[in-house]
Each structure stands twice: as structure tokens, then as C-alpha cells.
Amino acid sequence: MNLLTSIHNIDVQAFYWFMARKHRVAMTRLSRIVSRTADGPLYLVIAGIFIWQGQSQWAWVLAFGFTVERVLYFILKKGFKRNRPADILDGYTSVIRPSDQFSFPSGHTSGAFFMAFCLSEWFPGMQPALYLWATQVGCSRIFLGVHFPTDTMMGAVLGSSCALLAFEVLA
After folding, report:
1. How many CB atoms lie within 10 A of CB 122?
2. How far apart are the C-alpha atoms of 169 and 15, rounded to whole Å?
3. What is the Cα–Cα distance from 143 to 78, expressed in whole angstroms?
């Protein structure tokens, strides 16, 4: 058994663990709301607020970093072509309809961790709340049944890495 198969098997077990939670119905309802906060339009609003407040350099950091993140995200999605849980687990149907075909990495999680990193740099007092929100976005994607745990872990790494790059280049 190769390494990727082992990782996949552990991932499937972890996914089923999430799905077997006692309060899954309540978690699913909350997950819909949390997931929507990471759909993307909020990020444009935040960048617009920075521009309006005379912080255009912050908006440029967001624009550059998010552009790099999206490019890498699409390369990884198309390169790995990992099917979503509903496509490979017998008898499983996700709670929501995913926005695209493949699951690795999680774009919602990547975007959330990107924003959490950036906003934490500018507003350090908000760091715990921002990373809690980003983590909840990742968990929400699992509870909604559209991602495996490693999809969200890679999303967190991707988003954080792109934010770090953006700060190194522009800040």
C-alpha cells in the first residue's frame, strides 16, 4: 500500500468521524452560515474598506496574495483531481452542492486562512478570533460533506503561505 493510499484511508476514517458526531444536524446548519462567510465577496468588501480608509497598500497585499493563492489553488485542483466525498463514498450525499468538481485543496479554507493571516498582521488583537473563524470554515466544509480533512489542512497551508509571500513581497 503506498503512502497516498494510506493517507486517503486515514482521511476517509476522519471524514466518517466528523459525519458521526452527535450534534451533526446543528453543526450542519451552523456550517452553512460559516461557510458562506468565506465565499469571497466579504474579502472584496474588506479590500474596499482599506482603500476607503486610505490603506491602499493593505488592499494591494490582499489583491496580490489572493491572486497568487487562486492561481496555485487552480493548479492544485486540476493537478490532483481528487474527487469529492460524495463521488467516492458509497451511499454518501453531501449537504450542499460543491462549486466545482474536485476537492483538493479546499478553496474556502485557503481563502479564510489567507484573510486570517493578513488581518492578524494588521490587527494582532484579533488573531485568536480570526484563526478560530478560519478553522471553523475548514471544519464547516467537512461537515457539509464537500471536503476531506486533508483538503482543508492543505487549504490552511496554501492560504497562510500565500499571505506570508504577499507580506514578504509587498509589506
Report:
1. 12
2. 37
3. 24
Fold of 24-170: Vanadium-containing Chloroperoxidase; domain 1 (1.20.144)
Residue ranges of domains in the chain: 24-170
The pLDDT of residue 77 is 93
pTM: 0.90
Q: Which residue has the higher pLDDT, 25 or 88?
A: 88
81 alpha-carbon distance from chain centroid = 17
Tell me what pLDDT residue 15 has: 84
Number of helical (H) and strand (E) elements in the chain, helices listed first: 8, 0
- How far CA 156 is from CA of 9, 22, 37, 86, 150, in Å, comes to 21, 26, 16, 22, 10
Q: How far apart are CA 102 and CA 84, in angstroms?
A: 6
Kindly indicate the confidence band of residue 44, based on its pLDDT and cuts at 50, 70 and 90: confident
At residue 99, the pLDDT reads: 82
For residues 64 and 66, give the distance between their C-alpha atoms in angstroms, rounded to a whole number.
6
With 0-12 CB in 10 A as exposed, 13-18 as middle and 19+ as buried, what is 121? middle
Count the Cβ atoms, other than its own, within 10 Å of residue 17: 11
